[in-house]
Structures
1.
Amino acid sequence: MQIPTIVGAGLIVIGAGLGIGRIGGSAMDAIARQPEASGKIQTAMLIAAALIEGIGFAALFAA
Amino acid sequence: MVISTRTLRFTIAVFIAGLPLFSFANPVSDTTKVQTEVSHAVADTTHAVAEASHEAHAEPTDAKSKIKAFINHHLLDSHDFVFSANEETGEHYGFSLPIILWDGGLQVFSSSKFNHGESVAENNGNYYVLHHEKIYKTDAAGTLKEGHGGHPENVKPLDLSITKSVVGILGIALLMFLLFTSLGKSFAKNGGISKGPGRIFEPLVLFVRDEIAIPNIGEKKYKKYMSYLLTIFFFILFLNILGLTPLGFNITGNIAITASLAILTYLITTLTANKNYWGHIFWMPGVPTPMKFILAPIELLGTFIKPFSLMIRLYANILAGHVVLMSIIALMFIFKSWIGSTLSFGLAFALSLLEILVAFLQAYIFTMLSALYFGMGNEEHHHDEAHH
């Protein structure tokens, strides 16, 4: 009964982690290409990361 | 000044980071802690030491369940203000707060009547019991009828008490009022140059204006939202920092608080939105007509999901931070050896530094996303939508 929800939440957290990792990596690439746009890239990165993080926490609370 | 500014900053950061260590340092009765208390206690405490050490070694699950209970207790709001408690003697160090109930008329009494949840409080012929920080109406003996799901079936009167969180919020509100009015005055007095605390807060205010409000809302309309954005930014920031002090507040990690902040953002977004915003929700321009019928309910649902995610994000981040920090500190009571204490001290120190970053980041994200939603509600009709 408990185990499927916990496993599901774990899967979602893994997915969210991978997603945030990709966002961070891509932002690094973008900043390396265009250092002068780093401020704008950081803002966009934080928003996207925050949205994914919300899903991760929702999963944690569902478990 | 002898100390350079950087050293001072570092010292302050280290001090704040170390604060939680003092507050959570006595969740369970540890043998060493009891032994230090023996020196200034009466003779029969030696008995307690023997008993406590016996218990701790005989039932390791007991320490774990005690830690769990302590962490759960910390995460809840409480009706009295307890800095620390001694489990052996049953003494609590702290002060009582007023209880205000609406139960067929206003019932006001001090929370000391509950004796930290151990006795039945009597006021004007009504009897109340404090059960897991919720107040239930009972008879004189204080019996709770066990309902389904572990919650008592007794009547819950409307609770308007000045709880610990309310004290924290009122304190922060007063602090913000005094701080920012004096800051405003210092600008007027010094001809536009800040003085004292303004040196710290002016860059933050400018940051909210230049990095959050203007890029997201636009040059023309950002001004009417600035007061709200600045208020929630500093409110969340101060409450997050207050949660890291040894006073043991957990205010932004309380879903009722974040829910009301999110509702405010939702109301402001909805009430100040222009016709383009509603047009984009109910009749999305630039898509085929059948798609408009499918998109309208999704977009409408989206307007509720946005503040909901704001609420969950702040609540979960702060709650998770508190739980992890306290669990790591509790490690030293589980290992009961030098390695556990060293490990938990080091980890808790590092995590406290991270929590300061999270405190700033969450305040920033909440303000940022609020500004983004306000900006969406105020978008002008810019380019032709043929190429959407």
2.
Amino acid sequence: MRLILFDLPGQERRNFYPLSLSRPIWELRCGMSTLGEKLIAKTAAADVACFVPDYMAQAYRAKTDHKVNDPAMLTGDDLLLLDGRVKAASFNLEPKGPSEVGLTDDGQCLYARISKDDLAKLKADSIESLLTAAQQNLATVKCDLPTWNYTWELVLANPEQITEDFQALGRNGIEGTIEEPKAIRGSAKDVYVGSGALIHPMVVIDAANGPVFIDQDAEIHPFTRIEGPAYIGKKSILFGAKCREGNSIGPVCRVGGEVEESIIHGHSNKYHDGFLGHAYVGEWVNLGAFTTNSDLKNDYTSVSVTLDGRRPIDTGSTKVGSLIGDHTKTSIGVSFNTGAYVGAMGLIMATGKPLPKFIPSFSWFLEGVTTKGFGKAKLYETAKVAMSRRQCQWTPAEEEMWDAIFAITAPVRDEAIRRGRRQMLSKR
Amino acid sequence: MDKSEIQTRIVKAVCQVLNIEKDMVTPQSNFVFDLGAESTQSVQLLAAFEEEFGIEMESEAALSVQTVGEAVDFIAKYVNQ
């Protein structure tokens, strides 16, 4: 059986912007791994291929071992096609069995199990045509499988997911080094320190309320407190950080200050003091000193998030922090409002008060408004420098993907720039 | 639009953004070295010119313009298209 993960253009993936602008939805993280890793583990698939929006296919090929957008993967084997938004924990379909297509009430296909024989009859040459042909020709079943629908759901589920992942992995003990004096609260069986990890003296690992998993080659500097459930990724470094419960950090992050129930993708830095709570941060993000986000409103009502720059969506939760896209950088002292949407590839300067709740991708946010700034070429130059500092390369495929993202995000950004221009000049 | 009108309107925008007097600005004035524009003010100047003339400029090219006179030539290409 071959597992085919798919993430096709549509409203569903826009609900995960700005994070899904530059990656398929299953590359989002929750707990100790990505959604895709959980789906692959759940289906026990040895052979995996995937289909993503065309504009990111080339860049994604460099980041995955799986075949990407290869129509040959849609032939020659039994297939299990699976929407990347399906929650792995709830997915219990036997990989082997008669062909069937799982459809939601509104006709969306969440999965299709197709035998090799049926596949030959469907004669499809693309993922879209295969899904359509399967719905028309195979047995369909009503499917109410739970799915991830918004990025903040991952943040809210993170503490519980870390605990589940820790238990599923079944690893504990100290394989790295903990220098004396050490302080571990709770049960030692709820702590894992991977090989090559170094815990400096005066670090508190508090596993009393949840497990703490410190992955290989991580380094935890003195006066850091890590409260479980927590996952600290490979080669990440914590600098006297106050890590409250429910964080997934890394790999290769630099984190200080106070962080609570947040997910931070690889190669992002929040080196200095400042509070980050209930936030989802992409990769290659740099948060300047004292960058802080609000995750709770003063009146304790539920937080709304504006994903498209126009209509706010009620999250139904009283705790939602910032959603910050890849490669965005903030100056010192930036204050993000509750449930802020901060686009990818942005450069954000502080204003001394909370910033607007929606900042488009590729924004040069200066003097409180979105501007064109110095353009995307300058942002690419900065991204190249940031990546080279960590021995990573900015590739032509990556630039092509970001050019496409620039075009996708242009309408809402251009509108913000025009509005910003008027605001900027009316202040003078 | 002729270049003298463009220059008049550019000078007005420059004085507004950089908070300087009109007589300090000549066609030879360099935005950074003579008029003291910081990098964020360069971005504001770009926005001011776009608003003043109702045009959209390509920011990389626009920000490579060094002097008021160059700005006149550069903007003339957009407004007279």
